[in-house]
Amino acid sequence: xxxxxxxxxxxxxxxxxxxxxxxxxxxxxxxxxxxxxxxxxxxxxxxxxxxxxxxxxxxxxxxxxxxxxxxxxxxxxxxxxxxxxxxxxxxxxxxxxxxxxxxxxxxxxxxxxxxxxxxxxxxxxxxxxxxxxxxxxxxxxxxxxxxxxxxxxxxxxxxxxxxxxxxxxxxxxxxxxxxxxxxxxxxxxxxxxxxxxxxxxxxxxxxxxxxxxxxxxxxxxxxxxxxxxxxxxxxxxxxxxxxxxxxxxxxxxxxxxxxxxxxxxxxxxxxxxxxxxxxxxxxxxxxxxxxxxxxxxxxxxxxxxxxxxxxxxxxxxxxxxxxxxxxxxxxxxxxxxxxxxxxxxxx
Amino acid sequence: xxxxxxxxxxxxxxxxxxxxxxxxxxxxxxxxxxxxxxxxxxxxxxxxxxxxxxxxxxxxxxxxxxxxxxxxxxxxxxxxxxxxxxxxxxxxxxxxxxxxxxxxxxxxxxxxxxxxxxxxxxxxxxxxxxxxxxxxxxxxxxxxxxxxxxxxxxxxxxxxxxxxxxxxxxxxxxxxxxxxxxxxxxxxxxxxxxxxxxxxxxxxxxxxxxxxxxxxxxxxxxxxxxxxxxxxxxxxxxxxxxxxxxxxxxxxxxxxxxxxxxxxxxxxxxxxxxxxxxxxxxxxxxxxxxxxxxxxxxxxxxxxxxxxxxxxxxxxxxxxxxxxxxxxxxxxx
Lengths: 347, 333
What we know:
Order of helices and strands of chain B: HHHHHHHEEHHHHHHHH
Structural class of chain A: alpha/beta
Subcellular location (chain A): Cell envelope
Number of strands of chain A: 14
CATH topology of chain B: ABC transporter involved in vitamin B12 uptake, BtuC
Shape of chain A: elongated
Helix content of chain B: over 70%
Radius of gyration of chain B: 20 Å
CATH architecture of the largest domain in chain A: 3-Layer(aba) Sandwich
Strand content of chain B: under 5%
Number of helices of chain A: 10
Strand content of chain A: 15-25%
Keywords (chain A): Signal
CATH superfamily of the largest domain in chain A: Response regulator
Number of domains of chain A: 2
Largest interface: A-B, 60 and 58 residues
CATH topology of the largest domain in chain A: Rossmann fold
CATH class of the largest domain in chain A: Alpha Beta
Family (chain A): Belongs to the bacterial solute-binding protein 2 family.
CATH architecture of chain B: Orthogonal Bundle
Oligomer: heterodimer
Number of strands of chain B: 2
Distance between the termini of chain B: 28 Å
Strand order of the largest sheet of chain A: 2-1-3-4-5-13-12
Number of helices of chain B: 15
Shape of chain B: globular
Signal peptide (chain A): 1-25
Largest sheet of chain B: 2 strands, antiparallel
Protein name (chain A): Autoinducer 2 ABC transporter substrate-binding protein
C-alpha cells in the first residue's frame, strides 16, 4: 500500500516537472531559432532582453528581425518571461549550452549576471551588452548615448515643465539598475549646473518603482502626501511616468506638479494628450537591437573596434568610447515625444 | 476574554493599531481621509488574493499559481475584447474573466484532487503552464488601450476623499465593493456551510474528514474553482485600475500574499485560521508597504523593514501554533 502511494507520488512528480519544463520551453521563446543547426560561416547571434513582454523589448525585436533579414545571419531575440535577474541567468545558461556564437544582453542586474557572462566568455561566446555600463564581463557595452548626458536631457524637459524652479526627486526602476541610476545622477548634476532655483528633495532623493506601474503610482501618491512642496518627479524606467501620471490625475495635481521620463509613444498617448506628462524621451529600442546585433557581428568577424565606428543605424553611426573606458561605446540616439508628435512614430 | 487574548487576530490587530499610530506620529498624514482611502484602494487586489490563498492554506494545501492564473485569464479576455473592438458594458469582461478563472482553477483542482503530490509542486507547475501559455501561445505584450467600459470601471469611484489641509484628493474605487462582497460571502461559506467546514476538516486531517463523511475530492476540486474565480477577479480589477494591461504586473505577488495570510494566523499546515485574521494580516502588509515614504524610511531600507516585519510576524504565529500543539499533546497524554 505504502509502496504504491510512493510510486504514484513519483509518477506525479515527473508529470509536474514535465509540465514545468514544457512551460519553460514556451516561455519567452518569441522566435524559434534552432541554435546548433547553422552552417559554419553563418553566425548565430542571440539578443537577450530584460523581459520579453515589455513593449520596449517587443519593439527591440523588430530591429533584431530587420537585422536578420538585412544580413541573412541567424539572429533572434530570446528573453526571460519577466524582469527577473535569475530568470535571465537561466536564459543565458541555455544559450551557452546551445553553443551560440554571440549574445547581446540587456542586463536586468549587471552584478547578478557577472558569473554567467564570464561562463559564456570562457566558453568562447562573444558577449556584448547594452544598458550595462558597469558590466565587467562583457567585450563591449553599447549605449544609445552618454548616460549622464541623457539624464541631463530628461532634466531639461522636467525643468521646462516646472518653470525651472521648485523641489523634485528622482525615481528609478531598482536602485541596482545601472543605467537608471546614471540617468538620475546625470539629471541631478544638470540641475545643479543649469537650474539654481530647483532643489533635490534631500529626505527622499531616489525612490524605487520596481519597474511596476502600480508601484510607481503608489509611491508617487505617498511622495506628494508627505512632501507638499514637491513639484516634480524625474522618472527613468518606462513604467515610472505612466504610474506617476495616474497619481497626479487622482490627487488633483494636474498642472501643479510635473513628471518627465522615458516611455514609448503609443503606450503613453493618453497621458501625453491629457497633458499629465510634459514630455517623454527615449531612444528607439529597435535601433538599439539592430546596433547590438551589428556590434556582435563586428566582434565575431574580428573587425577593429575604435572611436567612430558605424553600427549602421542613425544616431549609432559614430560611436565613441566613453571617457576612460575601452569597453563602453556611446552614440547620440535620443528623441523627444510630446503631445504634438506622439502620433508620428508608429510604435 | 481569555479566548480573545489567546487569538492571533487580536495581536495582529494590536500591531496594526500600533503601526498606524507610529506612522501618524512620524508623518501626521496617516489618519487623513485621503490616506485612509489610498490604503483601502491599495488593499483591494492583495485582499482578494489573500482570501483565495487563505482558503487553500486552510485546506492544507498551498497555491502559488494564482497570480499567473489571474494574468492569463485577464490577458486572454482583454486581448479578445480589444481585438474584436468591444465597446459594450463591463458585464461581459467580468463574465469572461470569471469563466476563464473557473476553468483554470478547475485545471488546478483536477491535478490536486487526483494526484497525491504536494499542492506546492502542482501549482508551481501550473503557474509555469499558465504564464507559458500567456507568454508563448498568446504571445503576450502590454496592451495600452483597454475597451472603454473597462477603462471607465477602473476610474469609477464611490466617493472622493479630500485632505482639508493639502487639498489632495483620493478616490475610493468601485472595486472596493467587490472586495467587501467576496469577503462577506467567503466568511459565511467558510463558517456556516458544509463546503466551508469540509475545507477546515480536510486541512485538519484528510483521513478523518473522509471518515466523517465529507466528499473530500469534490470539496477540493470546487475549492480550486472558487479560488480561480477570486484570483481572476483581482486580476481584472488591477488591469482596469491601471488603465493598461501589463501581463507580468501581478507575477511575484504570491510570496507577499501568502506571508500576509500566515501573518494573519492561518497555519501553513492547514486546518486553522480565520478570515478576520487574514484581512488584518493583509491590511498590515499593505499599510507597511504604502507608508515607508510617509515614515521616511530610505529606499535602501524599505525591503529590509518589510522583510523583518514578515519574519517577526510569521514567527509569532509559528510559536503560538507550537504552543497549541504542545498543549494538545499534554492533554492527550
